[in-house]
## 1
Amino acid sequence: MIIDLKAELFRKQEEFKQQKLQSSSTSYVKSRPIEKKSTVWSKQNVGVLQRAQKDLESKAEDENEYEKSRFVYISNESFREKSKLYEQISKGGGIPEEDGSKVFLVDFQKKVIDNLLEERNKQREEEGHRLSKDEQICDAYIPVAKDEGEEWMDYTDSLGRSRRCMKKDLSMLKERDKDLQGKQDRIEDKEKDNVLPTLMSDDMRRELLRQKWEKEELEAMNGPIHYSNVRFDEKRSHGVGFFEFDRSEAGRQEQLDTLNQLRKQV
């Protein structure tokens, strides 16, 4: 009986120890969390990230605007240089040895020649339209001739233009046309003689031009001064009604007489 009681007591003690160990392992006292106080350095201003993002976007826009303005400035400077060089060549101020074709990727000499050809073709077209209108007017009304000499005749002049005149004036007009054609041929031959050879060095070309200008200067000093005597091969664009007189006094006077006769007939 005593042994049973001791065994029961020992069992109860063991159960109590086990319960005590379990309660001590599962139940513990939690420590109070320590609140960290925020300092001036750890605080962030409200919206600082948004402002930083806007600053980056604004900086990128400024860089783009700078690149655009720089490109526009370079383009404008290049355009001004092209315009200055093109104006110099088109006004006959001389074609420089380096005309900018490699720098600006523009053949200015060809551009000037193309413009001159285009202007000349335009003038020819306008002249053709004007002549066709005149011909239509002439064809619209042809008066009846009173005698054989007043009959209207069609002929082609030395320039290939269709003309109409009275039969009595036909021989005189053809003779005058031959004289004008002969003078034009002499002028063209003289211009061909004045053309400098292309296979020349720049020094030789300048020397020939200097000698030619000195000769023309002496001739201008010794004789009467006219516009054609003081041009010195200057390239200048004249109007449609411009007529270039011969440099010699005899040829000039002959041309003036012919023009005066034509003016009186008109």
## 2
Amino acid sequence: MSNYHSTMRNAIPETTEWEDLQVKHGNWEAREKPEPPPEWAPREERSAKEKVEACDEAGDLSDLEDDFDDDRFMAQYREARLKELRMKEEAAARVKILPQGHGEPVFIKRDEFIKHVTEAEHGTWVVVFLFQNGHEGCELM
């Protein structure tokens, strides 16, 4: 009979209604609630001076020096990358160049629909987003 099914007790402290009824009628023993895990707290960072004072061997000191070199390098790299991104952003703001055949969203009214969509230049793709003011679904877009 036990070949075709298995039972598994939940490791989570939550119980089911079935289990609660079984405990109430004395068929099962109540589960012991496990202790909650300790609250997580970030480890306190030690200052560079404390790290140096805590080093016992010369190897530990060289590891710390490597960390400081890495920190300096990362700070320089971060500054260079931010400068590069700012320059790209400024260049993009000054000149707006779109690839051939691409455009930008244009708001058209009902009268202009045929001109801009139906009679569009051959080979030009037109994407139409139809909406109605005040419609809840359109407001989400």
## 3
Amino acid sequence: MSFFCDDLRNGTSPLTLISMSHACEHTHDHDHHLKSDARAVRLEEAQALCVEAGERMTSSRLRTYELILEANAPIKAYDVIDRFHPDGAAKPPTVYRALSFLEQMGLIHRIESLNAFVACDTHDRHSRFGHTAGFLLCECCGQSEEIAIPNVLEIKASAAKTGFKVNHITLEARGLCNACQANR
């Protein structure tokens, strides 16, 4: 089944698709794929981060991270599982453990509303233990863009005034990316 930008008028969104990439009928000039050399650098940075944190970047964790880096849009866990081995899928617990580890290390983010994962774009690894991610989600093509969230401390302070302790904040905004707006 295929969804296009025109379906937005009918209340249908391609963000509900299992496969998030290229849901619209027009072409895009934005390319969110990392080139192989940039991907190799990110993989090396991830391994160095693990060493620095006293953790191991196992082959399963590395392969999971590589698949997320290769994805053109948010990727669901079962899509990672399906792509894990060329000759067959990985066992789900292996991939879910790897996803959990990568998320804890600040290398990936879970997009809650999609139950999908994306690589962290901030490249600010020293802030991984307090990093708040914000995402712009295109309802037409399914692309995601990570953005900085201003005033996160104010949100936490406001919550604290009510006696509430915030453990995690994720902001997700839906709309149309620049390319999809231009093609409407």
